[in-house]
Amino acid sequence: MISASEYIAVLLFGMSFFAFLFYLLSWRPVILLSFFFIIFTLAWRMSDTMFIDLAGPVYSSQLVRDIGPGTATIVHSLAYIISLVPFLYYFRSEAVEEWRADAKRNGAMRGERTLSDITFLLSLIFLSFLFFDLVRRGSIPLFHRIERFNYAGGHAHQWMKRYQNFVAFWWGLMFTAEYIRQRHVDWRMLALLLASAVYALLTGNRFSAFYSQSSFFLMPCAAIIALKYRSSEGSLLSWVNRRFASRAARLATAGCLVVAAGVVSLAIYNNLTNVRGFAGDEIWRQAFDRTLIQPSEIGWTSYERVFEGNQTKPSVAFHLLFEDPLEPDRNTSIQYLMLATIGEPRTHEHLSRGFQFAGGFPEIFFELFGPYLAWPFLLGMGCITAALTAYVVRGALQGNYASTFLSLYVLYGFYVMYIGGMLNFATTKTYWIKIAFLAMALLIEASLARVGLPLLPWVIFRMPQSGWLAKLVGPRSRNSS
Amino acid sequence: MNPLPLCSKIVILALLTLCAAGAVWFLCPPGPPVWRMTTIFHIGSTIDPDAVIDGTSSGKGTIEQPRTVIALISTPEFREAVARASEFQQHTAALSRRLVFATLRPHGLDSNYEDVEIDLAAASAADCLAAYRAIARQIERRHTLLLDENAKQLQTAIDDYRERSMQLKKWEDAAIKPDDQASTESDRRRRDLGAAWSESRERLRRLEAAKLALEPTTFPAESEIYVNGPLTNNTARLSAIAGLAILLCVLILTLGLEVRSQGRRAART
Hints:
The structure holds two protein chains of two kinds. By secondary structure, chain A is mostly helical. Chain A has 20 helices and four strands. Chain A has two domains: about 1-90 and about 280-450, no CATH class; about 105-275 and about 450-480, no CATH class. Chain B has one domain. The radius of gyration of chain B is 36 Å and the shape is elongated. Chains A and B meet through helix 1, helix 4, helix 13, helix 16 and helix 17 of A and helix 1, strand 1, helix 3, helix 5 and strand 4 of B.
């Protein structure tokens, strides 16, 4: 058991992280929304680490040992805050004010077809094919009790599985662009997101697919908040209260949340009972392990090794991360952490089955750089991530869609680092090619902006005002600003 | 809402950080120190009698494959057995038991295929050595059984070939009795018996030589083991304070940059 003072310290530091998140939610919502994918994970992990610290010893079925109690929360809470602090600078009010002033608000004229129209059309074709292919193959994972990673599907399914986050991001970007330029809610993009969520449900996904798609969709939507919300108007919560004053709006929001929670619960329950065959108490045990222990167990054992056992081996960590990893094509950080936690044979066994543990951040920094030198590196990573996120939001506001998308592509490497501790993403050639493309896009956009041209235009082409095509598409009234 | 003046922000941040540092310092006293031990043991050798008899190879191998030994030490059952069997000092037993279970790790070595590295941490140097003794006992007991079994197989093969060569010798002696009349058939039989006898002697010689290569698994003497410690458990506390210091610096820097940009904007307007 930990002492009373340590108990208080764990509570204090854990709650201070949540207080910081509450501050972001209330006063810096642009940060929260643009980085929601990672912030949600960090909050979840913080809760789990606190649980292990305070309720330990708790049994971890994956590690086959008891973990906790301890004071890992203190270090992890600080690591998370240090990673988020650079956002306060990059998203300072003055900077957001400047982006807002430069926001591209010129919409399309009547008869003009925009990037979002093309996106909708192509996405509709693709999603239709995706559903058609799912039905054509005859085995729908949700109904045929197939595990999501055992369902191969066709090429379209594989493509969607791989790039669904980027697709959701692009839909979110188009939704944002429509809102900023045309001043209306683009229900088409929301419908596409919903269709994609239904597809994820049918193909046996549980929680992560919905969470990641929604987060990536919301990410560019931070630009709408940047445009609409000013901190001088009070906290976000009071602003939302004013905006969603009607009973219908509140009921609709609450209804959506309830439906989403219900669908996710149903997907998880179906997976545990019908697909994996658990019954009775075992279902709750599995859900409990997956929710409260597994996300933080590797982090907690790493804390125990580094801070309590003084067993850091930076040279070995470096060797296994970058020089001679077990499987160089995958995330080597979690491989090292698994190896240090459960030993070589079990790690090989898991990896050969394509399975790896959750976690990796911030523990890999402490394993690699030691308990003191890790802090500047955590800060550095936070700075780069914040800068790239700022590019995404600024690009969405200013209509620089090429650099916005490429910023996300580069940022994705850092996302993988925050989710799974992966550091070897930076050692691949393709990553540097992405960086080069982003740099080129930024330079070209800056040059073109001087002559008033975008790299990726909003208006793609103009529809003829008469003829069969015009009749087919139908009248569409839009106002340019 | 009026924004706070810069100095107020800095004072608030400094006070908050100071409170956090105070909380870390006073609420998280250093835990008991730990000792850490790393050593390498050598897996003994066995002989495959069939390979020696065939003459295809020396027949030498390890008592147990290193990866099997590593797998064995990695199992929670083995770690649990070591933690239970170790004769820890009474006042540190509980912590050492937990530490040994959590930290005992085996590693294969690239440089030497027959060696395995083990490292562990315990609450005292004596406890490290106690855990080390327990590990050595368990592995040695297991390997002694395997080695004995292999030695028995080898001895059986030696006895067999010794008996066989004696029998052949007897037959050969019988075949070259002085009163025998020389004939092609008896010459051939004598030659065959001679060849079989010398071959069997050669195999016997190889088996006896191979027997000398049998070696048990050896652990270094306790006097040769370096136990690193006491490693104070102040790491978490000092690391957290280092983190807080960085946090404060960053926040002040952020405020400074904000002020600078405000100044520039004011100058522009």
